[in-house]
């Protein structure tokens, strides 16, 4: 069976390819990417695959049996792009689609949720067997802010005391690889999150411990946080979104204690302390 991986040169996609190569022959894997030349180091076949060019997608999917649809990174364009891919998959007779969605996509207040939920509905009405991986936050979403926090002397956000059940990107990649290479997965929806939840105050405390610097967590009003993000160069729309996602954290949108992810991959998820350590290297 041939498995296609969309977005295979992205941060999650590259990890998925490596995990799949540990479970199946590389000849069974096909990278579906915007720029095939960037996939040369993956060691698998690469095909041009642009989510925004529907007329070429079906041809690129020929001969592929299973498809891992890694959600696009263009917020606001995802529903259209994903629909393009699902329609192409129908034409190419894809036998199974595995989709990376969002934790609690059907109830989450996060602005990301509607596009994911719309994609889930498209999948369910497509007639193609599917599996939905509702991924929680990557711990790296927050550890990427560590350099800025060290420079400013504080970690800032708008998450209050909200608990974050994040996991390392590698944990979610492994889950995708396990699902794609095991029986009885079709029709399932997984809510995936890290084993151990933490608050942003806990994260700041851990950064302080590992660096030997006093880095407090300063909780800000949503608009104030968005304004600071904008002032350091983020586009206004993205700054507003990031601040609003933190508010979602305060409402419990990223808390999950089911440990479904660790059961799926067969070992505990990566502690956030380890991801902090890796970010500081």
Explain what this protein looks like in three dimensions.
There is one protein chain. Strands 3-2-1-4-5-6-8 form a 7-stranded parallel sheet, with helices on both faces. Helix content is 42%, strand content 14%. The longest helix is centred in the last third of the chain and has 15 residues. Helix 1 crosses helix 7, helix 2 crosses helix 3 and helix 3 packs parallel to helix 4. It contains 12 helices and 9 strands. The mean pLDDT is 96. It has 2 domains: 133 residues, NAD(P)-binding Rossmann-like Domain (Rossmann fold, 3-Layer(aba) Sandwich), CATH 3.40.50.720; 98 residues, UDP-galactose 4-epimerase, domain 1, CATH 3.90.25. It has 281 residues and is an alpha/beta fold. Pfam families: NAD_binding_10. InterPro entries: NAD(P)-bd_dom, NAD(P)-bd_dom_sf, NmrA-type_oxidoreductase. This is NAD(P)H dehydrogenase (Quinone).
């Amino acid at each position: 069976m041939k498995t296609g991986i969309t977005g295979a040169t992205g941060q999650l996609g590259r990890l998925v390819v490596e995990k799949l190569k540990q479970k199946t022959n590389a000849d069974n894997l096909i990278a579906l990417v915007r720029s095939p030349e960037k996939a040369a180091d993956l060691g698998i076949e690469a095909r041009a695959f642009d989510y925004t060019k529907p007329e070429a997608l079906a041809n690129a999917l020929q001969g592929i049996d299973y498809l891992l649809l890694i959600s696009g990174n263009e917020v606001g364009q995802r529903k259209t792009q994903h629909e393009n891919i699902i329609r192409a998959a129908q034409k190419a007779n894809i036998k199974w689609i595995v989709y990376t969605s969002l934790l609690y996509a059907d109830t989450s207040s996060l602005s990301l949720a509607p596009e994911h939920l719309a994609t889930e509905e498209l999948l369910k009405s497509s007639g193609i067997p599917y599996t939905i991986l509702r991924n929680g936050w990557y711990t790296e979403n927050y550890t990427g802010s560590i350099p800025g926090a060290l420079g400013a002397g504080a970690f800032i956000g708008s998450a209050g005391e909200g608990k974050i059940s994040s996991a390392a990107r590698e944990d979610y990649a492994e889950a995708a690889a396990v699902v794609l290479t095991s029986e009885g997965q079709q029709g399932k929806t997984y809510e995936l999150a890290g084993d151990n939840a933490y608050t942003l105050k806990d994260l700041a405390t851990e950064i302080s411990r590992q660096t030997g610097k006093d880095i407090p967590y300063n909780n800000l009003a949503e608009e104030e946080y968005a304004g600071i993000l904008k002032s350091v160069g983020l586009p206004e729309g993205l700054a507003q979104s990031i601040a609003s996602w933190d508010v979602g954290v305060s409402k419990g949108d990223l808390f999950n204690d089911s440990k479904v992810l660790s059961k799926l991959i067969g070992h505990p998820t990566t502690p956030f302390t380890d991801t902090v350590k890796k970010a500081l290297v």
